[in-house]
Design goal:
binds flavin mononucleotide
Length: about 220
């Protein structure tokens, strides 16, 4: 699959092999494998080592599944119901640093937690699994259902699954199961001072024996 993505400069194929398919088998994921993804996230860097990330997970076919699954929007439910696990990614927005007595805001809570999510996704890729982030869900419903306090931001949800080679998706979605490309490096990196113009995203490339990628949190047209 990495052959579909070419980097301009040499990088480990891990970075181009990670992608976000939607066609999952729904098979069970064992505890050690799932926990190894969170373990990878645990070692992410964070400002003051505050480690603001928190994860709530539910395995498919367990009582914990429904509240997470039901919070997804219709589009995401249409494919993520075949995930092996769903994860809610939270970040603490404040903490009490060592030596202090009063909680202080963590300005980097989302940045730090983004690094942790990326580590989770790369570890999943290393093990042949996929971690597909989702922004399309009802945050307030989730907050109520899972008892998430106000000092924890709900960053995203993640569907973890094993990719199916069968055409398990609805036709429109199946056609969108492609690895996406990236903006050229020159358009996202500049030396010295701001110098970015508006650019269109490159076209996606089809993936053999699979499907789509599209606007994640929108229903297919
Ligand atoms: C924060 C975030 C929210 C996303 N929301 C959704 C979503 O709601 N539904 C979906 O199908 N994909 C969603 N995606 C997946 C993106 O569309 C995908 O990561 C992006 O197109 C790049 O493709 P790749 O991950 O395959 O490289 C989301 C990704 C991120 C990081």
């Amino acid at each position: 699959m990495s052959l579909q993505r070419k980097s301009k400069y040499p990088i480990d194929s891990l970075f181009t092999c990670r992608w976000s398919p939607r066609a999952f088998t729904g098979e069970p994921i064992d505890d050690t494998t799932l926990m190894s993804f969170f373990e990878a996230a645990r070692w992410a860097p964070s400002s003051f080592n505050a480690q603001p990330w928190r994860f709530i997970y539910a395995r498919r076919d367990t009582p914990a599944w429904a509240p997470l699954h039901d919070a997804l929007n219709e589009f995401n439910r249409s494919w993520a119901h075949r995930a092996s696990a769903l994860v809610v990614v939270l970040s603490r927005t404040s903490w009490t640093p060592p030596g202090k007595t009063q909680p202080q805001p963590i300005p980097t809570h989302s940045f730090d937690t983004g690094a942790a999510w990326a580590s989770l996704a790369f570890q999943a890729t290393l093990k042949g699994w996929h971690a597909h982030a989702m922004g399309g869900f009802d945050r307030e419903q989730l907050r109520q259902a899972l008892g998430i306090p106000d000092d924890h931001a709900i960053e995203a949800m993640v569907a973890i699954g094993w990719r199916s080679d069968e055409p398990v998706l609805p036709e429109a979605l199946q056609a969108r199961e492609v690895m996406s490309q990236r903006l050229p490096l020159e358009q996202v990196v500049v030396e010295g001072r701001f110098g970015f113009g508006g650019v269109a995203a490159p076209a996606p490339v089809p993936v053999p024996s699979a499907q789509p990628v599209g606007e994640p949190d929108k229903a297919p047209a």
